[in-house]
Amino acid sequence: MTLSAATRQKIDALVGAHRVLLFMKGERRAPMCGFSAGVVDLLNEVGADYETVNILSDADLREGLKEYSQWPTFPQLFVEGKLVGGADIVQEMHKAGEL
Question: Helix, strand or coil for residue 3?
Answer without folding.
Answer: coil
